[in-house]
């Protein structure tokens, strides 16, 4: 029996892992999926049931185990992000402006750890920002090799607008490395700032 451990993973990663694992096993073979939050369980269960899979769910000390008996194949063209649903989410009229790819002043290594924790927590908070703006070295958070790229993509799927300073991308010669968001200009950014109820500068 093949097992995948998706504990602590943000959507769509549990769905991506599930789809990949099912493609690797044979018809009627069983797959075990380990999860640690109810939202992920609901998303994965919905995904599996819609594709005709037989499932059995167990919960042990806060950990969920889904046993899936493979029935048929999930089409390669299936977009797993469409199954990402976050309960109780609210988008509020505030902007987060990232001016740096680190958080706070002091030790650089600590600043990198803190900004990663900050961004990776955003998909889980109830009151999400309407817009996120990335300026100066903050644009490094939106590149293909960013440690927070997965979280930013999830936020974009949830409807949060991600604006990346085009002048900054040009200055650092990183426009071709952009991994998420929309290239923007200072006019658009100032419009978002002026319309927001508040602006947060991490």
Question: Mind explaining what this structure looks like?
Answer:
This protein folds into two domains: 2-83, Translation Initiation Factor IF3, CATH 3.30.110; 90-200, Hypothetical Protein Ychn, Chain: A, CATH 3.40.1260.10. The chain is 32% helix and 26% strand. The protein is built from six helices and nine strands. It has helices at 13-24, 38-50, 108-121, 149-157, 166-171, 186-195, and strands at residues 2-5, 30-35, 54-60, 63-69, 90-98, 127-134, 161-165, 182-184, 198-200. Strands 8-7-6-5-9 form a five-stranded parallel β-sheet, sandwiched between helices. The longest helix is centred in the middle third of the chain and has 14 residues, at 108-121. It is elongated, with a radius of gyration of 19 Å.
Helix content, binned percent? 25-40%
Q: Average pLDDT, to the nearest integer?
A: 91
Structural class: alpha/beta
Q: What does the largest sheet look like?
A: 5 strands, parallel
In total, how many beta strands?
9
For this structure, the CATH topology of the largest domain is Hypothetical Protein Ychn, Chain: A
Number of domains: 2
- Count the DSSP helices: 6
**Which residue ranges are poorly predicted, with pLDDT under 50 across at least 5 consecutive positions?**
none
Q: Any idea what the CATH superfamily of the largest domain is called?
A: DsrEFH-like
Q: So, CATH architecture of the largest domain?
A: 3-Layer(aba) Sandwich
- The CATH class of the largest domain turns out to be Alpha Beta
Q: Per DSSP, what share of the residues sits in E-state strands of 2 or more residues?
A: 25-35%
Q: Provide the gyration radius in Å.
A: 19 Å
Q: What's the order of the H and E elements?
A: EHEHEEEHEHEHEHE
What characteristic shape results from the CA principal axes? elongated
Query: Order of strands across the biggest sheet?
Result: 8-7-6-5-9
